[in-house]
Design brief:
Strand content: 25-35%
Order of helices and strands: HHEEEEEE
Number of helices: 2
Largest sheet: 6 strands, antiparallel
Shape: elongated
Radius of gyration: 18 Å
Helix content: 10-25%
């Protein structure tokens, strides 16, 4: 997952590849900031990326090899909750959600804070 700054730079570089008459002016920094904020507010699909794919989100790693990270999750019916992703020890290092919603799938997530 990219930081707000990385996403803004990425969008800026995409813009620079467009023909001149389609490019946004370099002086339009506030517009680039708004694009970055919009990207940061987006939910991340579990089909595209999982929290553990972004190591800088890991809150704690314990001596036994387990790890935790705090994220916000949304279920398939729209239930939103603060949640944890935990790396289990002894089960092939499998990552699992701490909170589930009555057997509903968690379909989206986002970090509680930007890495």
């Amino acid at each position: 997952m990219k930081t707000l700054e990385e996403r803004a730079v990425s969008e800026y570089l995409k813009n620079r590849k467009k023909p001149k008459h389609y490019q946004m002016s370099d002086g339009a920094y506030i517009d680039w900031f708004r694009l970055g904020v919009k990207a940061a507010e987006e939910w991340i699909s579990c089909n595209d990326e999982m929290p553990e794919d972004t190591p800088k989100l890991i809150d704690e790693t314990y001596p036994d090899g387990s790890s935790t990270m705090q994220v916000l999750t949304r279920s398939e019916t729209g239930q939103i909750s603060e949640n944890s992703r935990v790396k289990q020890v002894g089960k092939n290092g499998k990552w699992v959600w701490v909170i589930t919603f009555m057997d509903e799938m968690i379909v989206e997530w986002k970090p509680l804070v930007m890495p």
